Q: What sequence folds into this?
């Protein structure tokens, strides 16, 4: 933002009117709330860091075969010749060309982590997408229609949320055998309700908005109101929730693997690697420290990004809160909020 | 920015004259509309524990091209009545006849056709526009819903509408948050105008706007009325605004109309004690007039619409109440000495020139009593 | 200063308040000076973002995060430099405030009566029973029905209007010397509003209390203020006694308001709106902040900020505008004087400003 005329002193007249001209030309193509959020996100250093960590993991996942080819280390088969030392013991980080060392059967930990990233990100993202879509649809229907439909769906969501999900996952895995699709299915099944409940709450308040009433007075049907009026307002919260759900799903997947009911061995996943590392102590610290670290960095990355996205999408929660703290006042009503909006320069005259 | 006001003012008289029209069918006729909201408890097994008497038998007519002002205080049912007329709420009983058709019993499908004739402008320019949608598509909504125009045709029509209401058509792709309150209300007006309706129900269209901006919207509404022959039902609590825009005014109290008359008639010789109190309480931006008016202070609060009083609804606060008022509800009729069309529902209407007194003396006495009482010794350090 | 040398209860000089935000510095109040005399009512009129509410909060030390400079002398002490402890003693007992939103001063978890008693007992040495008796009297005074029962009520059990009145009762409990009312009646219906204004003016008469009424409602000011200060974008643009402001305003903004409000002194058959919108307080226009909307803008208005200077003959009538001092009033004739004066002092650039452009089309001044 350039300096205001007041800050720069007194500008010549021509310049002032030119600024006004530019202002109106620039904003003719409307800047959508999402565009504005992105612009805000770009100034957030923490978001950059978090996105960097996630991109690093994604690159690791994408180039896993390349890493494997470059090092000549297979992720599944023990590297019999070079993977262990002369006593048949695993190599530490840096030894024998193994950057992160090998596990106790001589497999390259770096390569396995890279392949594990594929599973983790795939499970994390895919199950979140499924859960978000399902949760949004069910949440909107429950919130919009209300009445007995809502009563039934809301109780269903409560039920899902109070399920002992690890137990169920173990039961399912023992019945159908552990697999990737089952893992995604189980995680999605236990995640949609969290989104559904929040979407339902949002819908309950959105449906009372005057613009919904306006649409109804124009003769718009229920479907149109749900899709055209309500859904666009849910995009932001669902994106935030989704971003925060991905790390939960990744941890969930790792937990299932660790318990042996996820994607079964020998597929390299972070959870499987941690399960394999069980029993190894401080001596073979690289068995468990690297998978743990990648897991931590990934989940932390998604969580921080989620927080930043939330702040970017809804800057008022953060900024007005800051302002509240400053002015030391309690609640406020509509007129106050409007005043604050104006103060914050959100409502720019065109 | 193209300005519609200059275009309109050439052909239109600034202030619509309340000239009597031939006794044709009014555009809108509301007959004995009742709206009660049940109060229920329980989620799945609901049982009704009472009801809110929001609108209790309202009848009124709005002739073509005129503006009926509807005034009253919070909870008097004026907004509910507006939503009953536009069928946002189903009626409990009564009829709403729009252009000769009873729309109160039509199904949603049948109603669609009639909706085109009747649009609404909402109070809150921030709440009535979806913040996630572009202005062009908001204004184009009625055209899309009623399949009037598509694609380029719709865009052209929307841009014409934007020009008519004084918005820059180039801002078609902007979002509501990029507009000020006044401009947003213009967007709401453009949306209401899109289907060329004959009736527009304006629910407090200027009360959420900055004072310096209100006049912009009032003038716009007046210009559009002249240009498109619109009929308005104008709901507001600001009496000065209502006086300015209306041909006739109806005053509501607790779900009923207590007085209705031509605007000048009502403001110069109000008959119902509530109207008198309301008018005396309104704050006029004119010190001499404001200080010379005797302010009638009403005792107590508006009773709950869940449990409305018997007889005349106003009797609990009325300075002129007599025993009969709590027993018998007065009918809305022309009182002796009044012009035709000036109806008042009161057993003891205020006579012209009569100085009605409310609870002013009590309030003043209470203040004096309080000031005279000893305050007590100050805590150390304070004061 | 321009003000009369009467007994001044509160003297505010060069008050400046700004808030740093992530979008830039919000310059909410920019050098505001005024005086309130004991027993008198000052009306501060302004729209959203004019800085009027921020002014009130600053006087009560309720803007802790803001950068505040200037001085506000009340009873020989500068309230702006007081610490929280000193403030607490002044607040309530000597200066009380009522807000537009009663919930901001009523605690939701405590009974209304208890809160009023607390306020009374914090500042004066009375027994609990006496405090309670007085709380009931106060509630009765503000016209709350069944006050003996309502003292036991929680704020959420009262209607909006009753809550507002309970808050006013609490503010009046200690008979403050100065009552600051920020949009005291905006959320209320006309009849309740009348009731409360009657009460406040009654109290003022009885106690000699001074009031600052902060509002956007010119009607409220017309009926209750002795002196009026018109604020725009954080500055006072005009100040005078109530009749002068309403019948012979000098500043184009005051004039514009009066011509655009139905029933106001300047409004004729057709309303004359002020073009455009109030500015953002982060990007305040150069010179006179009103110049983009002003129908009489001149070159000087864009370049240089006018100071409050005496205008017309009225006592204490001051205005911050480059138009000649004698151009006061609302009549078309005065508008012609203003227009003639401004026309000869305009360069090409000023003609493009929205206010001037509208005036040239005949939209913003009386025809």
A:
């Amino acid at each position: 933002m350039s300096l205001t005329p007041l800050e720069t002193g007194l500008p010549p007249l021509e310049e002032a009117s030119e600024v006004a001209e530019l202002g109106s030309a620039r904003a003719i193509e409307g800047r959508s709330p999402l565009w504005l959020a992105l612009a805000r996100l770009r100034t957030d250093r923490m978001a950059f860091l978090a996105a960097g960590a996630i991109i690093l993991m994604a690159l690791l996942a994408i180039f896993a075969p390349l890493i494997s080819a470059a090092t000549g280390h297979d992720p599944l088969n023990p590297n019999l010749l070079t993977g262990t030392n002369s006593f048949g013991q695993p190599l530490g980080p840096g030894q024998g060309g193994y950057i992160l060392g090998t596990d106790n059967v001589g497999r390259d930990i770096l390569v396995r982590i890279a392949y594990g990233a594929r599973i983790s990100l795939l499970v994390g993202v895919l199950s979140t997408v499924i859960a978000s879509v399902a949760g949004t649809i069910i949440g909107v229907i429950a919130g919009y229609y209300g009445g007995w439909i809502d009563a039934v769906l809301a109780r269903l969501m409560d039920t899902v949320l109070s399920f002992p999900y690890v137990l169920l996952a173990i039961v399912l895995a023992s019945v159908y055998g552990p697999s990737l699709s089952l893992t995604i299915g189980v995680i999605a099944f236990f995640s949609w309700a969290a989104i559904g409940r929040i979407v339902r709450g949002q819908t309950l308040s959105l449906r009372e908005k005057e613009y919904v009433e306006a649409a109804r007075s124009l003769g718009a049907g229920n479907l149109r109101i749900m899709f055209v009026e309500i859904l666009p307002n849910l995009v932001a919260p669902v994106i935030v929730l989704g971003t925060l759900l991905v790390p939960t799903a990744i941890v969930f997947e790792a937990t299932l693997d660790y318990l042996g009911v996820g994607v079964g061995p020998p597929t390299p996943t972070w959870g499987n690697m941690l399960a394999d590392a069980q029993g190894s102590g401080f001596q073979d610290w690289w068995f468990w420290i690297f998978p743990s670290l990648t897991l931590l960095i990934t989940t932390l990355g998604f969580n921080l990004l989620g927080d930043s996205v939330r702040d970017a999408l809804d800057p008022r929660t953060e900024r007005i809160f800051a302002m509240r703290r400053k002015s030391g006042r309690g609640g406020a009503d509509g007129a106050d909020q409007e005043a604050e909006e104006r103060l914050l320069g959100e409502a720019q005259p065109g | 920015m193209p300005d519609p006001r200059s275009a309109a003012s050439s052909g239109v008289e600034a202030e619509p004259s309340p000239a009597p029209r031939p006794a044709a069918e009014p555009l809108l006729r509301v007959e004995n509309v009742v709206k009660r909201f049940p109060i229920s408890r329980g989620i799945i097994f609901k049982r009704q524990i009472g009801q809110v008497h929001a609108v209790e038998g309202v009848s009124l007519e709005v002739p073509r091209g005129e503006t009926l002002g509807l005034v009253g205080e919070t909870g008097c049912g004026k907004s509910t009545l507006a939503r009953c007329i536009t069928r946002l709420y189903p009626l409990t009983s009564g009829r709403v006849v729009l252009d000769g058709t009873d729309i109160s019993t039509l199904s949603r499908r049948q109603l669609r056709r009639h909706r085109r004739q009747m649009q609404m402008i909402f109070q809150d320019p921030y709440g009535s526009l979806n913040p996630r949608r572009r202005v062009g598509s908001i204004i184009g909504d009625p055209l899309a819903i009623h399949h009037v125009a598509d694609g380029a045709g719709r865009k052209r029509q929307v841009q014409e509408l934007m020009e008519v209401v004084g918005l820059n058509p180039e801002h078609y792709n902007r979002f509501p948050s990029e507009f000020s309150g006044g401009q947003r209300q213009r967007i709401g007006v453009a949306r209401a105008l899109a289907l060329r309706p004959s009736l527009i129900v304006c629910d407090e269209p200027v009360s959420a706007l900055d004072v310096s901006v209100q006049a912009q919207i009032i003038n716009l509404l007046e210009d559009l009325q002249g240009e498109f022959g619109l009929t308005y039902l104008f709901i507001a609590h600001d009496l000065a605004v209502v006086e300015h825009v209306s041909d006739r005014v109806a005053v509501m109290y607790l779900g009923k109309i207590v007085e209705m008359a031509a605007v000048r008639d009502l403001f110069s010789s109000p008959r119902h004690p509530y109207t008198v109190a309301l008018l005396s309480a309104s704050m006029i931006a004119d010190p001499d007039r404001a200080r010379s008016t005797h302010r009638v202070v009403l005792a107590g609060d508006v009773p709950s619409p869940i449990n409305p009083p018997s007889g005349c609804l106003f009797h609990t606060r009325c300075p002129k109440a007599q025993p009969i008022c709590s027993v018998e509800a007065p009918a809305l009729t022309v009182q002796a000495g009044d012009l035709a069309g000036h109806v008042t529902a009161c057993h003891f209407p205020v006579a012209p020139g009569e100085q009605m007194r409310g609870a002013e003396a009590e309030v003043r006495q209470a203040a004096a009593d309080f000031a005279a009482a000893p305050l007590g010794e100050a805590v150390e350090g304070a004061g | 200063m321009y003000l009369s040398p009467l007994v001044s209860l509160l003297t505010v000089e060069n008050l400046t308040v700004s808030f740093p935000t992530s979008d830039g510095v919000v310059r909410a109040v920019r050098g505001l000076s005024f005086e309130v005399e004991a027993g008198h009512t000052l009306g501060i009129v302004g729209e959203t973002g004019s800085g009027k509410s921020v002014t009130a909060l600053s006087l009560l030390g309720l803007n802790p995060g803001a950068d505040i400079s200037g001085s506000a002398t009340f009873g020989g002490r500068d309230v702006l430099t007081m610490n929280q402890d000193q403030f607490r003693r002044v607040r309530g007992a000597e200066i009380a405030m009522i807000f537009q939103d009663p919930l901001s001063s009523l605690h939701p978890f405590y009974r209304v009566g208890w809160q009023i008693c607390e306020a009374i007992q914090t500042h004066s040495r009375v027994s609990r029973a006496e405090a309670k008796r007085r709380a009931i009297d106060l509630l009765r005074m503000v016209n709350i029905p069944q006050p003996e029962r309502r003292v036991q009520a929680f704020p959420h059990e009262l209607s909006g209007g009753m809550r507002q009145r309970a808050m006013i009762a609490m503010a009046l409990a200690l008979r403050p010397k100065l009552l600051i009312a920020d949009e005291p009646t905006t959320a209320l219906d006309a009849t309740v509003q009348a009731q409360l204004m009657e009460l406040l003016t009654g109290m003022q008469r009885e106690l000699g209390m001074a009031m600052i009424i902060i509002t956007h409602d010119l009607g409220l000011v017309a009926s209750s203020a002795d002196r009026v200060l018109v604020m725009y974008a954080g500055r006072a643009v005009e100040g005078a006694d109530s009749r002068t402001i309403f019948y012979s305003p000098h500043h184009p903004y005051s004039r514009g308001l009066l011509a655009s409000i139905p029933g106001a002194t300047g409004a004729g058959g057709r309303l004359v709106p002020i073009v455009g919108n109030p500015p953002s307080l982060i990007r305040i226009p150069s010179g006179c902040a009103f110049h983009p909307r002003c129908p009489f803008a001149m070159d000087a208005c864009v370049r240089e900020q006018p100071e409050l200077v005496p205008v017309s003959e009225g006592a204490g009538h001051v205005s911050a505008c480059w138009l000649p001092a004698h151009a006061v009033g609302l009549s078309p004739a005065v508008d012609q004087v203003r227009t003639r004066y401004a026309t000869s002092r305009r360069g090409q650039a000023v003609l493009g400003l929205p206010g001037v452009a509208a005036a040239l089309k005949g939209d913003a001044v009386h025809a």
